[in-house]
Amino acid sequence: MQKVYPDATAALDGLLFDGMTIMAGGFGLCGIPEKLIDAIEAAGVKDLTVISNNCGIDGVGLGKLLDAGQIKKMISSYVGENKKFAELYLSGELELEFNPQGTLAERIRAGGAGIPAFFTKTGVGTLIAQGKEERTFNHERYIMETGLVADLAIVKGWRADPHGNLVYRKTARNFNPMMATAGKVTVAEVEEVVQPKDLDPDHVHTAGIFVQRLIEGHDYEKRIEQRTVRERETV
Asked: Could you tell me the mean pLDDT of each successive run of 10 residues in the chain, 235 residues long?
């Protein structure tokens, strides 16, 4: 099975449609599948439900899809870096399903593992628990959360072989591995495609069985969300 495609547009051909659900890997601006996001923007699909830790920043990453009016609903755990997000949410133009960050990660992992629901203590007695089933185990209260799956998962890796085996680099190994398992179709972009012999099997984070399509991206810019520096000490 040929998995390597020449570019993001080709890799997404036939997969995109209005109203679909997309999982997008990354944490802040680290490990985001930016080439695939650009191709989704160019395709013009709309009314998207996007599952992602956050929504990038203004004009970068998933922020581009917000600017283009393509996202209808976000399922996220953190959205504090995006003014456009706040504007759309407060005006009622964007639906938002907030999750505690660990709960979001586990919902995705559960979806990828075929687990329809699980119970967690996180959120008990808060707004998060409203409308959710509650049970008591060992005299402790738990609420039920459902697993998440998506029509398409887009993930960003560091290296891959042509079979789709993926290696992530440092902090980019965040939501990407679990999202790769939870998409009906998973498309990965990586910085380098190497031969199978060049990947140590013990270092593979996502097995190729979970990846249907793959691209090699170039010209990545390593952005920093918030540059914080301390003042130079005076002697």
From this structure: 95 98 91 96 98 87 93 91 87 93 97 98 95 97 98 97 96 93 98 96 96 93 73 76
Question: By three-state DSSP, how is residue 120 classified?
Answer: strand
Superfamily of the domain at 8-117+148-216: Glutaconate Coenzyme A-transferase (3.40.1080.10)
| Per-domain residue ranges of the chain | 8-117+148-216
Flag whether the pTM goes above 0.90.
yes
CA distances, 23 to each of 88, 170, 194, 234 (Å): 20, 20, 25, 48
Euclidean distance between CA atoms 184 and 172, whole angstroms: 22
> Under a CB-based contact definition with an 8 Å cutoff, are residues 183 and 149 in contact?
yes
Nearest to 225 by CA among 72, 54, 20: 54
CA dist., res. 20 & res. 18, Å (int): 6
- Tell me which DSSP letter residue 57 carries: B
